[in-house]
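Example record

One chain of 238 residues, shown exactly as stored in the release files.
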Amino acid sequence: MAVKFCSVMAVCIVAQFLSTAASSTTTAPQNCNNVGPCRTGKRGPIGPRGLPGVAGNCSCNQSDQIELQKRLETIEDHVFRIRRSSPDTYCLLGMKDGTIPDNAISVSSRENSKDHGRLDQLVDGWHPSSNHASRTGREWIMADLGKVKTVTGVVTQGRHNSNNWVLTFKVEHSVDGRKFYDILKEDRSELVRIFDGNKDRSTKVINRFPNPVQARFVRIYPLTFVGYAFIRFDVIDC
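Predicted structure tokens for this chain:
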């Protein structure tokens, strides 16, 4: 009888163990930290891609598109004229903040001080190696914007630490760095536009072009100046 009783008890214990194990595999404990029976299984294969949605239909006809384009051009013209009439509003393109790196600044002379030509730079400024009259209109400083952008003008300052500044200058622009074009007068004549520069060494003077240009390279030629042709500048697109 004892042997039979023990056999029955053993069977009961084994049955209870198997039942507990089976239930533990179907119902995971709440807080098991991804270990043991509740460890996450491997992700199954990715299913097939769904069907593409139905293409949308444009309700605009040709005349609507033309009208919207005209309105956009009108708005852009208004914004441009507002910016031209607001001298304190302008958008710099990178000489001041270093977006234009030093190796993107070129000069006709004094290569070692070309980075001094950045707007608001606090050392002095850039100036050509010669102030001789024979070099007038031949010395320049140029910014490479990195890619072709819309350019609307330039901002200039004089020398930071002394009373030297550029009184007048002209501007050339290029998309490839080889063929340059002068900024011309507003009447679109063939006459080169001569810009009025600074009247002191620190005040910023904004000169907007008669019309925006597409350019990657913007080059400034000092023409007349006080003392030495020191200049600090940036290029603007608004």
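Notes: The first strand starts at residue 105 and ends at 107.
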